[in-house]
Amino acid sequence: MLLIRTNLRPSPIEGLGLFAAQPIAKGTITWAFDPRFDLLFDEAEVDRLPALQRALMLRHGYLSIQLQKYVLCADDARFWNHSATPNNAQILRPDDIEPANIALRDIAAGEELTVDYRTFDAVDAASGEEWLSK
Fold it and tell me: Binning pLDDT at 50, 70 and 90, where does residue 127 land?
């Protein structure tokens, strides 16, 4: 679940992006797994979904390296875009079951929030996709 104010706008990276609606200080936790808002699915469950729902899961969810389950965020966190030089990274705190996101530097209001998919998504980590290095 997002822990900071954000908004969605067209992204120069791809499609819609998640943008800071407030200044964010370096070290701020920006997202943390919350089972009330973030859903978990086994790979077998995703495989059994009807095509439309499966496509949604594969587009907006991710296969957690930590949990080996798909995570689908019910809030706008599903609109984080990838960057090889992100302004957020993952941190596994003692009581977390899934790594949280932390601001790597000060982020200005209006700036797009980015993460490196390869650090938390098993599919992207294993894909070797060239676009992920951009």
Answer: confident
**Local confidence band at 131 (pLDDT 50, 70, 90 cut-offs):** very low
- Domains, the chain, in order of start with CATH, read 6-106 (2.170.270.10)
Which tokens hold the place of 123? 């599919």
Model pTM score: 0.89
**Of 91, 83, 88, nearest in space to 107 by CA:** 88
Nearest residue to 109 (alpha-carbon basis) of 49, 32, 15, 23: 23
The alpha carbon torsion through 26, 86, 18, 72 (nearest 10 deg) reads -110
